[in-house]
Amino acid sequence: MLRGWTLVAGLGALTFSGQALAADAAAGQKVFARCQACHVLDASTNKIGPHLGGIMGRQAGSLSDFQYSDAMKESGITWDEQTLSQFLENPKKMVSGTKMAFPGLRKEEERANVIAYIVENSKE
Predict the structure, then answer these.
(1) Around Cβ 85, how many Cβ atoms within 10 Å?
(2) DSSP readout, 14-57?
(3) Angstrom distance (rounded) from CA 53 to CA 124
(4) SS3 8
(5) Which is higher by pLDDT, 88 or 9?
(6) How far is Cα 24 from Cα 26, in angstroms, rounded to an integer?
């Protein structure tokens, strides 16, 4: 189990500081609507932001066909449920200098749901 919280995609459960929350990928699809202007879930193309296909386990700033900020390339982040949740909560706080203009998702439940949706639907 990761420190802080863990996503169990097959069960759709998240643990935040010892509390279990049900992750709802269908609800996450609605949250992801906010992301679609800049991101897609398959590796076919980039938009304003990089594609999210195969994001879990990938080094931040590592897609060769996307122009990342130096801050993102040098962040040392490997994307997993925990790091993605932290980033989605407040992108500029986690990676000062990121190009991502999105202010963040403050609600844990929204982050859990959108991550469940990304895990279930991202394609390499």
Answers:
(1) 20
(2) EEETTEEEE--HHHHHHHHTTTTTT--SBTT---SS---TT-TT
(3) 5
(4) strand
(5) 88
(6) 5
